[in-house]
Amino acid sequence: MTDVCYRRILLKMGGEALAGPQGYGIDPHRAAEVAEIVKGVYDLGVQIAVVIGAGNLWRGTAGTSQGMSRSTADHMGMIATVMNALALQDALERKGIITRVQTAIEMRTVAEPYIRLRAIRHLDKGRVVITAGGTGNPYFTTDSAGALRAMELGAEVLIKATKVDAIYDDDPIKNPQAKRFDELTYIDFLNLRLRVMDSTAISLCMENNMPIVVLDFWQKDSVKKLLLGETIGTMISS
After folding, report:
1. Is residue 28 part of a domain?
2. From edge to edge, which strands make up the β-sheet containing 99-103?
């Protein structure tokens, strides 16, 4: 087994990772690209749990802005994450990686119910576990679900996959003078009101001393380099 910094990780990615050039929907080619990146990490001998969002299919704010109940909008989003999880599972399985989807909202004909000990057992057997359905409760983002699952499954790091190479104090595309952070404490992140992750997720990680790394998922071998000890993205810790 390759000598890596972390043996078990929680990879949190937005649903947009599966969207094609149009920015919405599920693009099978993009799903295959994501699966190839995950396979590169899996081949290092790392145990991988994944939490995926649903921004490519549904954003609750689109409903609530038109008067929809927040609970209804959030439940629709949770269901959409299951669609993304199944698409990613299919892409991974076609690359020879045994994958299990577990969902906090029971859909027994398409996925296992989320059971913590069963998920850990899958990881121990070398399977990738995709946990869908968020936390199973409205008013919580998939960032919070990622933080929660990272703790429950005994991950050593929570990796937040984005399209930007690190955390900045402003949008680096719009502001070339934006300050880049290599490291941040949880408190600094909260005080600066950065929007990369929601405050609930950060607070949960802070209370349980779960390190977070925010990186550009599409930068070549970024996750692999992190696991092999290179300084990649921004580390949020105590």
Report:
1. yes
2. 112-113, 99-103, 128-132, 47-52, 8-13, 157-162, 212-216, 234-237, 183-185
